[in-house]
Amino acid sequence: LQLHHSGRYRCGGWVKVWLSEKWRESALVTVTVHGIPVSGVSLSAQPPWGQVALGDSLVLNCMVAAGTGPLSFSWHRGDLGTPLGTGPRLELRHVGDNDSGHYHCRVSDGDSVEESGPLNVSVLGEGDNQGE
């Protein structure tokens, strides 16, 4: 079932009455499909644990255990209000010193919102190339 299946339904059929058939319909019934709130939002990273070498790429994936769609995703670092991206996947290419920090994703179904826990991204070798 999907949310758009909510509505009023009835069934009908041909019923034999004496020697003739007549179309008969049931009373209307109301069917309401309830959405499942977003829950169980978590992150995974490649390379694992969010540790990436300076200049390499990092891919973050946002996973949802339950929730009725359509779902919208946004990515955030620290307390920055502006999203870094949308969609269940965020790729950081050629990471630099300023890419370190705590990342999280936010998922909404239009009614409820849930955030993942933070993932600390560490850029290995930060500062090694300063002054060169």
TrEMBL record:
Residues 37-122 form the Ig-like domain. It comes from the Eukaryota. It holds the Pfam family Ig_3. CDD domains: Ig (cd00096). Residues 108-132 are annotated as: Disordered. InterPro entries: Ig-like_dom, Ig-like_dom_sf, Ig-like_fold, Ig_sub, Ig_sub2. This is FCRL2 protein. The lineage of its organism: Eukaryota, Metazoa, Chordata, Craniata, Vertebrata.
